Amino acid sequence: MKEIAKFDYIIYSKEFKVFARGKGEIDKVLYALPKQTPMQVLEKYRLSFKIDEEQDAQAMNTYKDRIMVFQQYLKKALSIMEIQKKQVKNMASVREREQKRQGELINHLIRYEDVGLAYYSNQDYTRRVLTHPDQVELKERIDDTQSKYKNAYNDAYLWIKGEFLDISGMYDGLQGRESVMKAQINCEQKKRDDQKELSKLSEGKTTMKSVFKSKAKKESNILSL
């Protein structure tokens, strides 16, 4: 929270207010927020990040290369962390079973002293260990110790899972950027194609798209382009 407090655009955002003050299921409230238009998102980024949009092509290409390298690094890191997450989860399960079996073993040993050792020692309680008359508090101490057992692998799993979700968020964001860049390239290409088509139609030339169209349809295309 201390780190988040350094950024006003997070503290005063609608999403953070829902997260900090909202009631009920936060995810449903967040999904119910009005979807922002691309221009609204762009203006928000311009206001919050103060990005210099008038940079030369060489600098932009350098940034794009760095982003691609970082994106590949995140993809590799996610695959490794996915394996680590499964491994630590399995280790946590093994540790849970180990602790359970340890408690069962102690209970079986106590039961053996009550039945087997008592029979073979002719009820001589001084030969006992876990249930020795002088160790009346031993069983309570054992139970207390077992109740305080903590599975460190559970903590490790939650930590790895949290880091995995953070990195997944960054990677998804870069994937979204890539989709936007592809859409931008397609739009720019369509704009150039439409401009060429408009120029040819305005000059009265026939194009592949207009070869089977009537004069009225061609005029309608000129107006739409």
Report on the architecture of this protein.
The protein has 225 residues and is mostly helical. It has three domains: 1-34, no CATH class; 75-149; 163-225. The chain has eight helices and no strands. α5 packs antiparallel against α7. It is elongated. The two termini are 51 Å apart.
Quick summary:
The chain is mainly alpha-helical and 225 residues long. The protein is built from eight helices and no strands. It has three domains: 1-34, no CATH class; 75-149; 163-225.
User: What composes the largest sheet?
Assistant: none
**What are the segments in which pLDDT stays under 50 over at least 5 consecutive residues?**
none
What Rg, in angstroms, do the CA atoms define? Answer: 35 Å
Q: How far is the first residue's CA from the last residue's CA?
A: 51 Å
Shape: elongated
Instruction: Tally the structural domains.
Output: 3
List key phrases describing it:
single chain, 73% helix, 225 residues, 3 domains, mainly alpha
Q: What is the secondary structure topology, with strand pairs?
A:
Elements lengths: L7 H4 L2 H8 L4 H6 L6 H12 L7 H64 L17 H10 L4 H51 L12 H10 L1
